[in-house]
């Protein structure tokens, strides 16, 4: 099972764990957080070329710039996933009062995938903006012009039968709507059905934005992603890996967050957790 850690500021590092009862696949957690990349690059032992191969990365295309420090490192990561970032792009354009041109955005997305030989990338899952028929049209264009299968992202508006069809046709599918609460917390109990049905059809399943620490032991996705490691810089806490799980230590009253040191600490501890998870979960 792969766990991709993501962030509102971008995407970065990953953790893997062995699925309990889920076969021989490891859980790979993809860490993300473009806004904090430069601190980690500058300050951790993991970000040497050999070290890069010890974790996974998930990044949003919406945050990638042509001179991004991330781009030349992509071939060295243990694994890399690219999110289309289409919904984020739409929000950015609205803030600038600029018309949204998803056709042009798709062209750029395809060009990036082809230029940098990206193998795992998500579709433009913007059903609520353009409708599912348009999403399927974009999917066909994306796959034709890259020559590769994308990872379709199921949303509840598509219905149960469409999830099963996607599992029949694709080797990797994703479950969307977790972060946005489209899938409510009380509905997480249905995750085993999605996972079981995907595996029955020989498809892997990715839980977008899901890294609830207790839930990772309970719901055996093949991969997930989350921005949790970056939360310390936003809310003033650090993580410590205790040999089994991550503990959160809140900032003492009256102290300020040291951005660089906090980013390095939390990234390092999440990498430790990811390596533990790969061996033990």
Task: Please give a handful of descriptors for the protein shown.
two-stranded antiparallel sheet; nine-stranded mixed beta sheet; 281 residues; TIM Barrel; alpha/beta
Structure notes:
The strands form 2 sheets. Strands 1, 2, 3, 4, 5, 6, 7, 8 and 9 form a 9-stranded mixed β-sheet that branches. The protein has one domain (2-280): TIM Barrel (Alpha-Beta Barrel). Residues 7-23 have low confidence and may be disordered. The protein is built from 11 helices and 11 strands. The radius of gyration is 18 Å and the shape is globular. α4 (102-115) packs parallel to α6 (132-146) and α7 (160-169) runs parallel beside α8. With 281 residues, the chain is of the alpha/beta class.
Summarize the structure.
With 281 residues, this protein is α/β, with parallel strands linked by helices. It contains eleven helices and eleven strands.
């Amino acid at each position: 099972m792969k766990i991709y850690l993501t962030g509102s500021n971008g995407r970065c590092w990953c953790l893997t764990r062995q699925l309990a009862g889920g076969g021989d696949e490891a859980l790979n957690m993809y860490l993300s957080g473009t806004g904090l990349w430069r601190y980690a690059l500058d300050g951790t032992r993991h970000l040497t070329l050999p070290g890069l191969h010890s974790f996974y990365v998930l990044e949003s295309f919406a945050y990638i710039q042509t001179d991004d420090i991330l781009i030349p490192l992509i071939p060295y990561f243990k694994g890399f996933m690219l999110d289309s970032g289409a919904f984020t792009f739409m929000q950015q354009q609205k803030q600038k009062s600029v018309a949204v041109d998803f056709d042009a955005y798709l062209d750029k997305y395809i060009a990036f995938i082809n230029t940098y030989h990206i193998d795992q990338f998500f579709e433009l899952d913007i059903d609520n903006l353009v409708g599912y028929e348009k999403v399927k049209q974009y999917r066909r264009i994306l796959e034709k012009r890259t020559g590769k299968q994308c990872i379709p992202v199921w949303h509840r508006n598509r219905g149960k039968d469409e999830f099963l069809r996607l599992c029949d046709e694709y080797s990797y599918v994703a479950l969307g709507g977790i972060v946005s609460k489209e899938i409510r917390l009380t509905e997480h109990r249905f995750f085993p059905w999605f996972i079981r049905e995907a595996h029955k059809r020989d498809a892997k399943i990715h839980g977008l934005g899901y890294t609830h620490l207790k839930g990772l032991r309970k719901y055996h996705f093949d991969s997930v992603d989350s921005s949790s490691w970056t939360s310390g810089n936003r809310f003033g806490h650090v993580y410590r890996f205790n040999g089994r799980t991550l503990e959160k230590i809140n900032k003492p009253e009256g102290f300020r967050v040291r951005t660089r040191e906090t980013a390095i600490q939390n990234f390092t501890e999440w990498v430790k957790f990811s390596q533990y998870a790969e061996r033990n979960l």
